[in-house]
Write a structure and sequence with these properties.
rod-shaped; 94% helix; 69 residues; mainly alpha
């Protein structure tokens, strides 16, 4: 059916294609991980912002209460 050389050449080509696909997959995974890290930083920044706002409002309320007494 196939000569041995043709089969070996096809196997080598298949291996090369598989290697390139693996490299591309790793690159995409690194990009996804990087995007997730940036997203995580943004979420923590938002959380800290909300906590800072709530604490500031709490301090202002306490100051208003102490001034009225």
């Amino acid at each position: 059916m196939y000569e041995p050389f043709e089969a070996a050449a096809k196997l080598e080509t298949h291996r090369q294609v598989t290697d390139e696909r693996w490299i591309a997959l790793e690159r995409r995974l690194e990009m996804i991980e990087s995007a997730l890290e940036r997203l995580e930083r943004r979420i923590w920044l938002a959380v800290y912002g909300v906590v800072g706002f709530v604490l500031t409002r709490g301090v202002l309320v306490l100051l208003d209460v102490t001034q009225q007494v």
